[in-house]
């Protein structure tokens, strides 16, 4: 397994568990045994593979839904954790989608660009230095999700913490994203020139995994 393909290893394990994933567990185990980068985090990753092997497929699927679909604090959609319902989330999605397309990477019809497994698969698709840069940009959000999963004692925390360990950048804590509805947006930002919608920040021009002011400083 080439080093960049470790991202694909994580991507597959973070997806909704299906029968073919469970059938491939010996291959995931072999990669953990043989790849130097994965082996450096053997204990937590071995624990996660053991979790997949311990429960029935139905139990794994039910736990996945309860973990990620029914708890927005654990959502695997990166921009959910920094933009909330702010319309800038849409701009960030467009920018990330364009990043994918510039490198010939196409998402499925039902996939959103900020879905973490999709991002990780993309990192396996591009040159290693570019993958490391993007991971360094996104690591603050990934670590934020990992912390929430750890607090809930989810086995998936092991996966996300291992992804964080691959980053060349140390994660910083995030400020919780704010605005959840239009009333809160009006109160937070004030009305725009028409007086009907909240005054939003200017659209971003490059891929940004978190908006300005979403990271806590060392003094906070």
Would you write up a description of this structure?
- One of its GO terms (biological process) is chaperone-mediated protein complex assembly.
- Keywords: Nitrate assimilation.
- GO terms for molecular function: metallochaperone activity; unfolded protein binding.
- The chain has 220 residues and is mainly alpha-helical.
- The protein has helices at 6-14, 19-23, 25-34, 36-39, 42-54, 57-69, 80-83, 88-102, 116-123, 128-151, 156-165, 182-189.
- It is globular and about 40 Å long.
- The model is unreliable at 178-207 and 210-215 (pLDDT under 50).
Task: Summarize the helices and strands and which ones pair or pack.
Blueprint: H1 6-14, H2 19-23, H3 25-34, H4 36-39, H5 42-54, H6 57-69, H7 80-83, H8 88-102, H9 116-123, H10 128-151, H11 156-165, H12 182-189
Helix pairs in contact: 1-9, 1-11, 3-5, 5-11, 10-11
List keywords for this structure.
mainly alpha; 0% strand; globular; nitrate assimilation; NO3_reductase_chaperone_NarJ; DMSO/NO3_reduct_chaperone
- How many helices? The count is 12
Shape field = globular
Listing every helix as H and every strand as E from the N terminus to the C terminus, the arrangement reads HHHHHHHHHHHH
The largest sheet, given as strand count, sense and whether it forms a barrel, is: none
- Count every beta strand, where a strand is a DSSP E run of 2 or more residues: 0
Proportion of residues in helical segments:
55-70%
* Percent strand: under 5%
Low-confidence stretches: 178-207, 210-215
Mean pLDDT score: 80
Please tell me how large the radius of gyration is.
Answer: 18 Å
Helix/strand structural class: mainly alpha
- End-to-end span in angstroms? 41 Å
């Amino acid at each position: 397994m080439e080093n960049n393909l470790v991202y694909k290893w994580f991507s597959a394990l973070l997806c909704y568990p299906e029968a073919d994933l469970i059938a491939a567990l010996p291959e995931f185990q072999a990669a953990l045994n043989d790849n130097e980068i994965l082996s450096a985090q053997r204990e937590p990753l071995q624990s996660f593979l053991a979790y997949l092997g311990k429960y029935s497929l139905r139990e794994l699927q039910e736990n996945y839904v309860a973990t990620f679909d029914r708890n927005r604090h654990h959502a695997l959609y990166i921009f959910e954790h920094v933009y909330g319902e702010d319309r800038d989330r849409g701009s960030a999605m467009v920018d990330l989608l364009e990043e994918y397309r510039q490198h010939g990477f196409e998402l499925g019809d039902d996939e959103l660009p900020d879905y973490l497994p999709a991002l990780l698969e993309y990192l396996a698709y591009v040159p290693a230095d570019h993958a490391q840069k993007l991971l360094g940009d996104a690591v603050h959000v990934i670590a934020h999700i990992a912390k929430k999963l750890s607090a809930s004692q989810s086995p998936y925390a092991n996966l996300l913490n291992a992804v964080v360990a691959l980053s060349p950048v140390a994660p910083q804590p995030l400020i919780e994203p704010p605005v959840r509805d239009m009333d809160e947006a009006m109160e937070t930002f004030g009305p725009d020139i028409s007086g009907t919608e909240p005054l939003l920040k200017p659209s971003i021009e490059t891929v940004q995994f978190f908006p300005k002011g979403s990271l806590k400083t060392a003094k906070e």
